[in-house]
């Protein structure tokens, strides 16, 4: 039979139970192979119960020292009860100086004490009893997370000033630098918020008019890395120039915020091709396409006709976003009526334009002219596609140089890749 003898308001702090007439400390820690919490127990005496009941600090110190033993038990192992019992007298009944000395020799869970209000200064100096004078039953897990975040920064030499810390709190990146940033003004000390907003205003001005476009080669929600890097560079340069006292962590979180917001705006914008929508077919001698066929390297085909409610380029890039993959990086746009097309090689940042010189007759094969050109990122591909769907292969002349000799093209590609 098991009866609860003593418990605190926080359910995670170890309880004292009486089981078959014997006093035991019980605590939940770790998880089993099925990710269910494990429970550990070990025997204590009436003298130990009296201290646990009256002295919150000693109770928490004992918990902190026992937790590493629970971790050592893993998902299926048994708690080393002898080691746990051996901690009772030195932590609960010894003089403060002896407790401090013990904690300099054993493993213990620092974050647990910090979450329950431990004074960090004395704690780091090894004065655990003094550090626990302000201990609380309620836990503040965020305080422990912030402590460990500060320690990680200190290990790489980053020390935050008040404004640096406020900026990281504003973007929600104080605890985890990989978290997608967002604007959280309520997380900032009101006295520092105006300074934070001046930094944010500097960043907004630096990237005004800039955008981060989509990159369908990497999926329907991917954005252009070059655009991202361009905005990041502009924002960080402006912020460092206007606010030279900020540490790198603060500057980076501001640029991350600006780029993330710009990328989100791009993802929420309909997939339309601005260049094509604004173009005039007459600019290309009346060669605007009336029907096109899109194919990928897996043989999947999609048709587009002029009476489609969407532009050809928008339809094509949506097709790419849906179909592009590591093993599917060649896409073709073909105008069968005009006998011409372009083939995009995403794996090589190159393109081929194909023009029919002579139709096949009497069983003979048609004759084609194939010319190759290098492409500068997704922006270059967008320009090529936009020009082709408006004016065909003739409209691509300005996007060269075009090379019909494969060996010459390969040499040019290797020279570019070497740079």
Describe the structure in your own words:
The structure is a single chain. The chain has 419 residues and is of the alpha+beta class. It has 17 helices and 10 strands. Strands 6-5-7-8-9-10 form a 6-stranded antiparallel β-sheet. Strands 1-2-3-4 form a 4-stranded antiparallel β-sheet. A hairpin with a 4-residue loop joins strand 8 (340-345) and strand 9 (350-358). It is elongated.
Question: Any key phrases for this structure?
Answer:
419 residues, alpha+beta, 6-stranded antiparallel sheet, 4-stranded antiparallel sheet, 44% helix
Question: What can be said about this structure in brief?
Answer:
The chain is built from 17 helices and 10 strands. It has 419 residues and is α+β, with helices and mostly antiparallel strands.
Walk me through the topology.
Blueprint lengths: L1 E5 L8 E5 L2 E10 L5 E7 L2 H9 L1 H18 L7 H6 L1 H6 L2 H8 L6 H6 L4 H5 L3 H4 L9 H15 L6 H9 L22 H14 L18 H18 L5 H20 L6 H5 L12 E5 L5 E5 L6 H12 L6 E6 L4 E6 L4 E9 L8 E8 L2 H15 L14 H13 L1
Helix pairs in contact: 10-11, 10-13, 11-12, 12-13
